[in-house]
Amino acid sequence: MLSKTLYMRGLQCPKSLWLDRKQPEVRTAPSPGLIARWEAGNEVGLYAQLLFPGGVEIPFDGHTKVEQLTQTKDLLAKGAQTIYEATFSHEGVLVRADILRKTRDGWELYEVKSAAGVKPHFPDDVAIQYFVLTGCGIPLSRAFLVHIDTRYVRRGEIVPLELFAMQEVTEIVREKQAAIPEELTRMRKVLAAGLPVIDIGPHCTNPYECDFKGHCWQHIPEHSVFDLSGRGVDKWDLYRKGIVRMDDIPLEALNSAQRMQAEYYRNRGEHDDPDAIREFLDGLIYPLCFLDFETFDSPIPPFDGTRPYQQIPFLYSLYRQDSPGGLLSHSEFLAPPGIDPRDALTERLLAAIPEGSCVLAYNKTFEIRVLKDLAERLPKRRERLLAIAEGVKDLMVPFRRRDIYHWEMNGSYSLKKVLPVLVPQLSYEGMAIQEGREASLAYLALEKIEGRKEREKAEEDLRAYCRQDTLGMVKLLEKMRELADSPTRKR
Asked: What is the per-residue pLDDT across 224-258, written as a single tens digit (0 to 9) for each?
């Protein structure tokens, strides 16, 4: 028995299909982030059902496939007009339709996605459902993809008709029907034979990152052609020519940034440009505030005035320094979970940033977007917030320009790559939270923690992570001042 999910997996990679059925133990366990996306997708599906209220849902948990098929058949026989998760089987393929709705012209099929638009592979998802349902004698008149409309702004209760957008895909889905039997035959031949001999390729991550990638990529060494930063050279073309290790890449094939990365890796090189660093430092004024936000997002806007997938700040950390090398003061705010954090966070933040000070962020685009969203939320604070946003300086700039570069940065200028190299005592290793997505998930999980000590520990882990980012900026700036006072180095 194949399923819609297995069919989509087989379209992406036959080897992945075989491993899923024959050798599932080599699968990489889903990350907490992926599990969170699945849970969010389930929530989106429930809201989508409200587009056509009054339907009957075929239960999933605790029910066998046979029971689900039987319940669907019974509902159809009784004249049900709308069914959620209707279950059908045809030609050895099992599918569950998110929404099946009867109209005067026949049945309409709705596939619900939590994405913000229609992606190229989505019609294949609908096509296999169309194949199975029509094979079972269901007269389908139209087929639709339902996705999140990011223009929606929540005002009170969620309005499903405004939250979602629909795109009809009937014609493209019908055009795909002729190829499906052949695809199913091919997939069954794959499953009946031994492990397919298929090399790694772009299909490993497109349209989804395969959960067998870790198994299939075992032969790729650390510091490979795939670690080259940016676009530049075609990495897959080099791989197909047998060029895998960073050491083996022909330098003449690379653009300037990639060539620098490869050369410095080979030579274990590093360099800094004091003149360029001083130029950046001269653009800073005091008081100087080092700012970092932590945010979460959701396809379902959680509060009034929020949009789907809007980054909502729940935590900030800010170090303040009134003169070069002066004493540091620290401010931070972690919002209680479950309530709109933006008002209280904004008031604390504005109290911590003196008028006329310079705010420094790492990758300022993110902080600026958060500040502008807060300005939209709070008209009385709009002018001040926009003034701060307008003046934010970006500590990432000297590293993006490679005024400072070390081979261990591996072509990256992200804080997580730069900080451990230049300020090794501030490594993220061993911390309970080591990246932003983990912080978002930890914050959303706070409400579920019942024990006081466990909750206090989780809250401190969040503060410690955000504090590490801002303290890291402080220490990076100190290091930059040292380098600015030194002769030009390249070795």
From this structure: 999 999 988 999 999 999 999 999 999 999 999 99
Going by C-alpha positions, the residue among 145, 129, 119, 123 that lies closest to residue 206 is 119
Alpha-carbon distances, residue 381 vs 350, 376, 389 (angstroms): 9, 9, 12
Rounded to two decimals, what is the model's pTM?
A: 0.93
Q: What was the pLDDT predicted at 62?
A: 83
Short-list 113, 159, 106, CA closest to 8: 113
C-alpha torsion 15→17→21→24, nearest 10: 70
Residues in the chain with pLDDT < 50?
Answer: none
Read off the tokens for 386: 């926009």
What amino acid occupies position 281? L
Residue 275: strand, helix, or coil: helix
- Domains along the chain? 2-192 (3.90.320), 221-267 (no CATH), 269-491 (3.30.420.10)
Going by DSSP bridges, is the β-strand pair 404-406/270-272 parallel, antiparallel, or unpaired? antiparallel
Closest of 308, 326, 334, 311 to residue 433, by C-alpha = 334
pLDDT of residue 467: 97
Q: Residue 486 has what pLDDT?
A: 78
**Full DSSP string of 332-388:** EEEPPTTS--HHHHHHHHHHHS-TTPEEEESSHHHHHHHHHHHHHH-GGGHHHHHHH
- What pLDDT does 427 receive? 87
Q: Residue type at 100?
A: L
Contact between residue 92 and residue 79 where contact means Cβ atoms under 8 Å apart: no
Pairing state between β 56-57 and 82-90: parallel
Give me the sign of the Cα torsion angle 447, 453, 457, 462: positive
Q: Which residues are bridge partners to 146 per DSSP?
A: 112, 166
